[in-house]
Amino acid sequence: MRAIRAASTALWGAAALALAAPVAVAHAADGAPAPNPRVRDAKAPGDFVVSPSLVSPGGRVTLSAPGCSSTATATAGIFDTVQIAPGSAVTATVDADAKRGAVYTVAFNCSGGGQGTVDLTISGLATLTPAPTTGSTVLLPPRGVRGGLGGSQDGPGTAELVAGTALVLAAAGGSVYAVRRRSARRRH
Predict the structure, then answer these.
(1) How far apart are CA 160 and CA 162, in angstroms?
(2) 52, 121 contact by CB (below 8 A)
(3) In whole angstroms, what is the distance from residue 44 CA to residue 112 CA?
(4) What CA–CA distance (Å, rounded) separates 170 from 176?
(5) Helix (H) or strand (E) holding 165
(6) Please, are residues 68 and 114 in contact by the beta-carbon 8 Å criterion?
(7) pLDDT single digits (tens) 27-79
(8) At what angle do helices 158-187 and 2-29 cross, to 10 degrees?
(9) How would you label 56-89 residue by residue, b for 16+ Cβ within 10 Å and e otherwise?
């Protein structure tokens, strides 16, 4: 009979901890910074990239659209329209007559329907941005698997936190009670 009580107390404790674990994991991920805060109206942060974001007239920029699973088009009034293949990047040369100190919007359109914009600032200095060497490689951060719920679920609320804490405390209290009762019976 004692073994059954001890086993059921252990199972309740394990269940309470298992229910409280997702809450702790969700709160640990809340403080993670966005990979590219410059992107507006994109499907997710970092879906469209212009590098560098500050360039001199006549300089070069690298454009990529890691958020597109199909071909993307990048357009702006200061360079020719470019096509970006999935998983790659292209280089565009900014017009030499681009206005210094101006901020231009680079519009990205995925052939699958996604779109977004990124700001590109023209330097007020008279120096040119150095061109990348022919052997340079653009490395993009890993994006992980695109599946799951995205942003459709909110984090745990106060009620979930209180319920999880109550379950953990109940399991701990039950364990202490069972152990003390068991040791008290052995003494008699």
Answers:
(1) 5
(2) no
(3) 15
(4) 10
(5) helix 158-187
(6) yes
(7) 444 433 333 333 334 445 567 888 888 999 999 999 988 888 888 888 888 99
(8) 150
(9) bbebbbebbbbbbeeebbbebebbeebebeeeeb
